[in-house]
Amino acid sequence: MDSTNGSANNHSKTRLQRLRCSVQNYDWGRVGYESAVAKLFEKNSGLEEIEENKCYAELWMGTHASGPSFVVEEELLLGHDNQDASLKSWIEKNPGVLGDKVFDKWNTNLPFLFKVLSIAKALSIQAHPDKKLAEMLHKTQPNVYKDDNHKPEMVLAITDFEALCGFTEFEELQDILRDFPEISEVVGTACVDQVLNCSEKDGEGKKKALQALFTQLMSTTKEVISDILAKLINRLNLESEARELTSKEALSLRLEKQYPNDVGVIAALLFNYVKLKPGEALYLGANEPHAYIFGECIECMATSDNVVRAGLTPKKRDTEILCSMLTYKQGSPEILRGVNINPNTKRYTPPLDEFEVDHCVLEDEKSVVFPAIPGPSIFLVTAGNGTMKSEAEETVSEGDVVFAPADTCICVTAASELHLYRAGVNRRFFGLE
């Protein structure tokens, strides 16, 4: 794992490295300065200003080819946007920055991808494949599924945040089928009766009934969906004049305005509608359906961009794959609130090796130490300014992104109230839980 670079680079690979990161302008993103992603990207990239009429959806921090980060020090030597200055290339030249154990498992691949999302309208109903399915999809459709890796992920709310996540409890599902007769019009009474007549204790029967209903719904022609949705929206609009709509009824009206005639508007009724407060998080495992609806968040995941979609999207849909890959687990998702590791920092720990996330808030003139760990980290400053000190001291402020090599102890001091997030390899991977 020895680097072939000279002594100057051997020194640089032990220091903190500033990163210039990539932005994604998906059409569901918030526009211009309404977007936290835009404001962070503007400061991170050194742009004089962003485009005020453009959507800024995601800021990517990591080594994925679809949104690479660049080592600022290397860019000064090699040129702007030179792929040899990318974080991926720099790690390949300096693999020691990952630490021995990380290198032994993932080679020179940074195992996590760190993001900020600014969401104005709903993302697609989607799921991410497990490792085995990812390898198959990548092999058979490499132009669509560009990674052979799984993509479990965690979302941590910066603002109030709305999401659909997993299928509802079975009793709630039965209530939904009674309250929304339009679903029966789409899938047929036999399919609905199979769910309504299922015994609460028949776990396998409930799963099969749900899978049959969901598959039938998602496979229905657009013409039928369009007709039934028109009835649903008309009914809800009339009922809203006489009573306050439930949260899911109101959501149906919102989603239909964003995605007219889309089956996802009806499918959303079957999922848990989750509202997170700032500082709350959700973990989303492989093969679990979800859709982010609104808000801004930090997101971290295993390094992959594989997405299987089937609703609320103009993009390619793989309905058959999505319906066959889901676990069809039911029940409310666990909301993670983090664990205090010191008075300033909360840690969010998902049940996998690739990543964990820390959120740190420092008052003026306060300091906190991030002890050395045997793997790499990426730090993002979202507000305030201060310093980060390892071998040398770096001034940091809003929009700064810093790569910390393995075995680097870092002292952070706030000049004004400082908010930062750290993504790193999960401590359980090193036996440090």
Automatic annotation (TrEMBL):
Q: Which domain of life is it from?
A: Eukaryota
Signal peptide location in the record? none
Looking at its record, which EC class is this enzyme? isomerase
The active site lies at R309
Residues in Phosphomannose isomerase type I catalytic domain copies: 16-168
Its EC number(s): 5.3.1.8
Its needed co-factors are:
Zn(2+)
Q: How is the cofactor bound?
A: Binds 1 zinc ion per subunit.
SUPFAM superfamilies under this entry?
Answer: RmlC-like cupins
Q: Does the keyword Metal-binding apply?
A: yes
- The Phosphomannose isomerase type I helical insertion domain, residue ranges: 202-270
| Name of the featured protein | Mannose-6-phosphate isomerase
Record-annotated residues binding Zn(2+)?
Answer: Q126, H128, E153, H290
* Reactions it catalyzes: D-mannose 6-phosphate = D-fructose 6-phosphate
Q: Name one GO cellular component term.
A: cytosol
Q: Which family does it belong to?
A: Belongs to the mannose-6-phosphate isomerase type 1 family.
Q: Which GO terms describe its biological process?
A: carbohydrate metabolic process; GDP-mannose biosynthetic process; response to cadmium ion; response to L-ascorbic acid; response to light stimulus; response to zinc ion
Tell me a Gene Ontology molecular-function term this record carries. Answer: mannose-6-phosphate isomerase activity
